[in-house]
Amino acid sequence: MEIIGNNLGLKELVSVEPSDIDENGVLNIPEGVEFISDFLMVNAREVDTGEGCEYIVNPIEGVTDVVKTINVPASVTIVGKGAFATLSQLQEINFPKNSELRKIERNAFTSCSSLQNITIPEGVVGLEERTFQGCKKLVNVNKEGEPFKYIDDWCFSGCDLKQIRVSKMCASHDMSCYAFYNGNKDIELIIEEGTKRLIISPERLEERLATTTDLFEKSVNANGDKQPREEPVKANGNGKPQKKGMKDRVKSVLDL
Predict the structure, then answer these.
(1) Residue 5: which pLDDT band, with cuts at 50, 70 and 90?
(2) Distance set, CA 72 to CA 47, 76, 96, 121, 146 (Å)
(3) Does any domain span residue 228?
(4) Tag placement on the chain: N or C end, fewer CB within 10 Å?
(5) What CATH number does the domain containing 80 carry?
Protein backbone atom coordinates (compact mmCIF):
# COMPACT_ATOMS: atom_id res chain seq x y z
CA MET A 1 0.00 0.00 0.00
CA GLU A 2 1.42 3.36 -1.02
CA ILE A 3 0.37 6.72 0.45
CA ILE A 4 1.73 10.04 -0.85
CA GLY A 5 1.15 13.75 -0.33
CA ASN A 6 -0.68 15.00 -3.43
CA ASN A 7 -0.85 18.43 -5.06
CA LEU A 8 -3.98 19.22 -3.05
CA GLY A 9 -2.01 18.85 0.15
CA LEU A 10 -3.88 15.64 1.01
CA LYS A 11 -2.56 12.23 1.98
CA GLU A 12 -3.55 10.10 -1.00
CA LEU A 13 -3.77 6.33 -1.18
CA VAL A 14 -2.38 5.57 -4.65
CA SER A 15 -1.90 1.79 -4.73
CA VAL A 16 -3.00 -1.44 -3.11
CA GLU A 17 -1.20 -4.78 -3.23
CA PRO A 18 -2.64 -8.28 -2.76
CA SER A 19 -0.79 -8.49 0.57
CA ASP A 20 -2.90 -5.56 1.86
CA ILE A 21 -6.05 -7.72 1.68
CA ASP A 22 -6.59 -10.28 4.44
CA GLU A 23 -7.66 -13.90 4.02
CA ASN A 24 -11.33 -12.92 4.34
CA GLY A 25 -11.13 -10.37 1.52
CA VAL A 26 -11.08 -7.37 3.87
CA LEU A 27 -9.18 -4.19 2.97
CA ASN A 28 -8.60 -1.80 5.86
CA ILE A 29 -7.60 1.64 4.61
CA PRO A 30 -5.28 3.24 7.18
CA GLU A 31 -6.43 6.15 9.35
CA GLY A 32 -4.92 9.40 8.10
CA VAL A 33 -5.62 8.78 4.42
CA GLU A 34 -7.63 11.73 3.07
CA PHE A 35 -7.95 11.03 -0.65
CA ILE A 36 -8.57 7.65 -2.30
CA SER A 37 -6.91 7.77 -5.70
CA ASP A 38 -8.68 7.58 -9.05
CA PHE A 39 -9.04 3.98 -10.26
CA LEU A 40 -7.26 2.70 -7.17
CA MET A 41 -8.25 -0.94 -7.62
CA VAL A 42 -7.75 -1.30 -11.39
CA ASN A 43 -5.20 -0.46 -14.05
CA ALA A 44 -6.77 2.31 -16.11
CA ARG A 45 -5.79 4.34 -19.15
CA GLU A 46 -7.58 7.15 -20.93
CA VAL A 47 -8.40 6.74 -24.63
CA ASP A 48 -9.57 9.47 -27.02
CA THR A 49 -12.37 7.93 -29.12
CA GLY A 50 -12.79 11.01 -31.31
CA GLU A 51 -16.12 11.65 -29.62
CA GLY A 52 -14.68 12.17 -26.16
CA CYS A 53 -12.47 10.29 -23.76
CA GLU A 54 -13.15 6.85 -22.33
CA TYR A 55 -11.32 4.82 -19.71
CA ILE A 56 -10.10 1.32 -20.44
CA VAL A 57 -9.72 -0.62 -17.21
CA ASN A 58 -8.00 -3.90 -16.50
CA PRO A 59 -8.16 -5.86 -13.23
CA ILE A 60 -5.21 -6.14 -10.88
CA GLU A 61 -4.70 -9.82 -10.20
CA GLY A 62 -5.24 -10.68 -6.56
CA VAL A 63 -6.98 -7.35 -5.85
CA THR A 64 -9.92 -6.58 -8.12
CA ASP A 65 -11.43 -10.05 -7.90
CA VAL A 66 -10.65 -10.64 -4.21
CA VAL A 67 -11.87 -7.66 -2.16
CA LYS A 68 -15.18 -8.33 -0.37
CA THR A 69 -15.15 -5.64 2.34
CA ILE A 70 -13.57 -2.18 2.45
CA ASN A 71 -13.32 -0.25 5.70
CA VAL A 72 -12.81 3.45 5.04
CA PRO A 73 -11.42 5.58 7.91
CA ALA A 74 -13.04 8.80 9.13
CA SER A 75 -10.15 10.84 7.74
CA VAL A 76 -11.07 10.24 4.06
CA THR A 77 -12.69 13.32 2.49
CA ILE A 78 -12.71 12.34 -1.20
CA VAL A 79 -13.26 9.05 -3.01
CA GLY A 80 -11.74 9.57 -6.46
CA LYS A 81 -13.31 8.70 -9.78
CA GLY A 82 -13.45 4.98 -10.44
CA ALA A 83 -11.71 4.34 -7.12
CA PHE A 84 -13.56 1.09 -6.38
CA ALA A 85 -14.88 0.34 -9.88
CA THR A 86 -15.29 -3.25 -11.14
CA LEU A 87 -14.78 -4.93 -7.75
CA SER A 88 -17.00 -7.87 -8.64
CA GLN A 89 -16.81 -9.46 -5.17
CA LEU A 90 -17.32 -6.30 -3.11
CA GLN A 91 -20.23 -6.74 -0.71
CA GLU A 92 -19.55 -4.13 1.98
CA ILE A 93 -18.14 -0.61 2.00
CA ASN A 94 -18.11 0.80 5.52
CA PHE A 95 -17.83 4.46 6.55
CA PRO A 96 -17.70 5.32 10.28
CA LYS A 97 -20.32 7.53 11.94
CA ASN A 98 -17.79 10.35 12.28
CA SER A 99 -16.75 10.18 8.62
CA GLU A 100 -15.42 13.41 7.09
CA LEU A 101 -16.28 12.27 3.56
CA ARG A 102 -17.66 15.10 1.45
CA LYS A 103 -17.31 13.92 -2.15
CA ILE A 104 -17.70 10.70 -4.12
CA GLU A 105 -16.53 11.24 -7.68
CA ARG A 106 -18.00 9.72 -10.84
CA ASN A 107 -17.77 5.99 -11.53
CA ALA A 108 -16.56 5.39 -7.97
CA PHE A 109 -18.48 2.09 -7.63
CA THR A 110 -19.26 1.29 -11.27
CA SER A 111 -19.88 -2.43 -11.87
CA CYS A 112 -19.52 -3.53 -8.25
CA SER A 113 -21.95 -6.28 -9.16
CA SER A 114 -22.17 -7.91 -5.69
CA LEU A 115 -22.83 -4.73 -3.71
CA GLN A 116 -26.34 -4.71 -2.21
CA ASN A 117 -26.34 -1.98 0.46
CA ILE A 118 -24.39 1.16 1.23
CA THR A 119 -24.72 4.03 3.71
CA ILE A 120 -23.52 7.41 2.44
CA PRO A 121 -22.13 9.78 5.10
CA GLU A 122 -23.88 13.05 5.90
CA GLY A 123 -21.21 15.27 4.34
CA VAL A 124 -21.85 13.98 0.79
CA VAL A 125 -24.52 16.24 -0.71
CA GLY A 126 -25.01 14.56 -4.10
CA LEU A 127 -23.93 11.82 -6.48
CA GLU A 128 -22.02 12.25 -9.72
CA GLU A 129 -22.58 10.49 -13.03
CA ARG A 130 -22.34 6.69 -13.19
CA THR A 131 -21.43 6.42 -9.49
CA PHE A 132 -23.26 3.09 -9.10
CA GLN A 133 -23.84 2.18 -12.74
CA GLY A 134 -23.97 -1.57 -13.25
CA CYS A 135 -24.33 -2.40 -9.54
CA LYS A 136 -27.11 -4.78 -10.50
CA LYS A 137 -27.73 -6.11 -6.97
CA LEU A 138 -27.80 -2.71 -5.29
CA VAL A 139 -31.18 -2.33 -3.56
CA ASN A 140 -30.57 0.08 -0.68
CA VAL A 141 -28.71 3.39 -0.53
CA ASN A 142 -29.10 4.97 2.88
CA LYS A 143 -28.24 8.67 3.11
CA GLU A 144 -27.32 9.94 6.56
CA GLY A 145 -28.49 13.44 7.48
CA GLU A 146 -30.08 15.53 4.72
CA PRO A 147 -31.38 13.84 1.53
CA PHE A 148 -29.43 14.04 -1.73
CA LYS A 149 -29.42 17.46 -3.38
CA TYR A 150 -28.44 16.25 -6.86
CA ILE A 151 -28.15 12.97 -8.77
CA ASP A 152 -26.34 13.02 -12.11
CA ASP A 153 -26.65 11.03 -15.36
CA TRP A 154 -26.77 7.23 -15.20
CA CYS A 155 -25.90 7.28 -11.51
CA PHE A 156 -28.05 4.19 -10.77
CA SER A 157 -28.31 2.80 -14.29
CA GLY A 158 -28.85 -0.96 -14.16
CA CYS A 159 -29.43 -1.04 -10.38
CA ASP A 160 -32.27 -2.77 -8.54
CA LEU A 161 -32.70 0.20 -6.20
CA LYS A 162 -36.00 0.16 -4.25
CA GLN A 163 -36.13 3.74 -2.98
CA ILE A 164 -33.97 6.80 -2.36
CA ARG A 165 -34.27 10.06 -0.40
CA VAL A 166 -33.91 13.30 -2.35
CA SER A 167 -34.58 16.97 -1.61
CA LYS A 168 -37.40 18.91 -3.22
CA MET A 169 -34.89 20.94 -5.25
CA CYS A 170 -33.21 17.75 -6.44
CA ALA A 171 -36.53 16.29 -7.58
CA SER A 172 -37.61 19.40 -9.44
CA HIS A 173 -34.31 20.66 -10.88
CA ASP A 174 -31.18 18.66 -10.11
CA MET A 175 -31.98 15.01 -10.81
CA SER A 176 -31.15 13.72 -14.26
CA CYS A 177 -33.95 11.93 -16.12
CA TYR A 178 -31.29 9.32 -16.95
CA ALA A 179 -30.35 8.74 -13.29
CA PHE A 180 -32.28 5.46 -12.97
CA TYR A 181 -32.15 4.38 -16.62
CA ASN A 182 -32.52 0.65 -17.24
CA GLY A 183 -32.94 0.00 -13.52
CA ASN A 184 -35.77 -1.06 -11.21
CA LYS A 185 -39.01 0.26 -12.70
CA ASP A 186 -40.75 0.20 -9.31
CA ILE A 187 -38.31 2.55 -7.56
CA GLU A 188 -39.81 5.10 -5.19
CA LEU A 189 -38.47 8.61 -4.70
CA ILE A 190 -38.85 9.89 -1.16
CA ILE A 191 -38.91 13.66 -1.59
CA GLU A 192 -38.31 15.55 1.63
CA GLU A 193 -38.66 19.20 2.55
CA GLY A 194 -38.62 19.98 6.25
CA THR A 195 -41.23 17.76 7.90
CA LYS A 196 -43.05 17.02 4.66
CA ARG A 197 -42.46 13.90 2.60
CA LEU A 198 -43.79 12.79 -0.77
CA ILE A 199 -43.37 9.19 -1.97
CA ILE A 200 -43.70 8.93 -5.74
CA SER A 201 -42.24 7.21 -8.81
CA PRO A 202 -39.96 9.13 -11.21
CA GLU A 203 -42.58 8.80 -13.96
CA ARG A 204 -45.38 10.18 -11.79
CA LEU A 205 -43.05 12.92 -10.57
CA GLU A 206 -42.54 14.17 -14.10
CA GLU A 207 -46.31 14.15 -14.65
CA ARG A 208 -46.77 16.12 -11.42
CA LEU A 209 -44.15 18.69 -12.34
CA ALA A 210 -45.76 19.22 -15.73
CA THR A 211 -49.15 20.01 -14.20
CA THR A 212 -48.53 21.68 -10.83
CA THR A 213 -46.01 23.78 -8.97
CA ASP A 214 -46.74 22.07 -5.66
CA LEU A 215 -44.78 18.85 -5.16
CA PHE A 216 -46.55 18.29 -1.85
CA GLU A 217 -50.15 18.54 -3.02
CA LYS A 218 -50.56 15.09 -1.47
CA SER A 219 -47.93 14.09 1.03
CA VAL A 220 -47.18 12.34 4.28
CA ASN A 221 -45.63 14.04 7.26
CA ALA A 222 -42.08 12.88 8.05
CA ASN A 223 -43.04 12.80 11.73
CA GLY A 224 -45.73 10.20 11.07
CA ASP A 225 -48.87 12.34 10.96
CA LYS A 226 -51.49 10.76 8.72
CA GLN A 227 -51.95 12.59 5.44
CA PRO A 228 -52.91 11.40 1.95
CA ARG A 229 -50.08 9.44 0.35
CA GLU A 230 -49.32 9.49 -3.34
CA GLU A 231 -49.57 5.88 -4.46
CA PRO A 232 -46.39 4.73 -6.24
CA VAL A 233 -46.75 3.71 -9.86
CA LYS A 234 -44.37 1.96 -12.19
CA ALA A 235 -41.72 4.24 -13.62
CA ASN A 236 -40.35 4.28 -17.15
CA GLY A 237 -42.73 1.60 -18.39
CA ASN A 238 -41.03 1.39 -21.77
CA GLY A 239 -37.57 1.29 -20.24
CA LYS A 240 -36.53 4.44 -22.10
CA PRO A 241 -35.55 7.81 -20.65
CA GLN A 242 -37.42 10.98 -21.48
CA LYS A 243 -35.80 13.13 -24.12
CA LYS A 244 -35.56 16.12 -21.82
CA GLY A 245 -34.53 16.31 -18.18
CA MET A 246 -36.76 17.79 -15.51
CA LYS A 247 -34.54 20.83 -15.24
CA ASP A 248 -35.33 21.62 -18.92
CA ARG A 249 -39.07 21.50 -18.33
CA VAL A 250 -39.50 22.95 -14.88
CA LYS A 251 -38.45 26.52 -14.30
CA SER A 252 -39.46 26.96 -10.69
CA VAL A 253 -41.24 25.36 -7.77
CA LEU A 254 -43.13 27.51 -5.31
CA ASP A 255 -42.07 27.56 -1.69
CA LEU A 256 -44.05 25.39 0.70
Answers:
(1) confident
(2) 30, 7, 7, 11, 21
(3) no
(4) C
(5) 3.80.10.10
Average of per-residue pLDDT across 133-159:
93
Structural domain harbouring 158: 2-187
Q: How many domains does the chain have?
A: 1
Q: Give the pLDDT band (50/70/90) at residue 69.
A: very high
